[in-house]
Specification:
- The chain is of the alpha+beta class.
- It has a 6-stranded mixed sheet, with helices on one face.
- The chain is globular, with a radius of gyration of 15 Å.
- Helix content is 30%, strand content 28%.
- It contains 3 helices and 6 strands, in the order βαββαβαββ.
- The relative contact order is 0.22.
- α2 packs across α3.
- The chain has one domain: 2-Layer Sandwich (60s Ribosomal Protein L30, Chain: A).
């Protein structure tokens, strides 16, 4: 049985340590990425909603990269929204830039009433691509 291995981008490792969780866990050929938010380098929320969503996707991209993946390797997404009806248009604009064409990953959007000062969070499962052998 494969032992799960923690994965973290180098520039944000201290934030994950401070809060006691891994940015992602690699298990076999899957990467389970913890919820990513639109936080600045110091961990504080980005105040503008669209910028917060873009920053969350940038943070997600950094974790995926640290695990050997890209957005194209994502198979399942769960996103959390504090005011989905009001935020939908701005969210979809960013989402469509990140995933401009099919095939799209599975996606579940959930409305929540609290995200520790954030308005958007995204967690994913990605399949780690096989590396070609020499």
């Amino acid at each position: 049985m494969t032992k799960p291995t923690p994965v973290a981008p180098g520039n944000r490792h201290a934030l994950y340590e401070a809060h006691g969780y891994s940015a992602a866990i690699r298990s076999g050929d899957l990467l389970f990425v913890s919820g990513q938010v639109g936080s600045r380098e110091d961990g504080s929320p980005e105040p503008d909603y669209s910028t917060q969503v873009r920053t969350a996707f940038a943070n997600l991209e950094a974790v995926l990269s640290a695990g050997g993946c890209t957005f194209q390797d994502i198979v399942d997404v769960t996103s959390f929204h504090t005011d989905p009806e009001r935020q939908f248009e701005a969210f979809m604009k960013v989402k469509n830039e990140v995933f401009p064409e099919a095939p799209y990953p599975n996606w579940t959007g959930i409305g929540v009433n609290w995200l520790s000062g954030f308005d958007f969070e995204i967690k994913v499962i990605a399949r780690i691509p096989a590396t070609p052998t020499a």
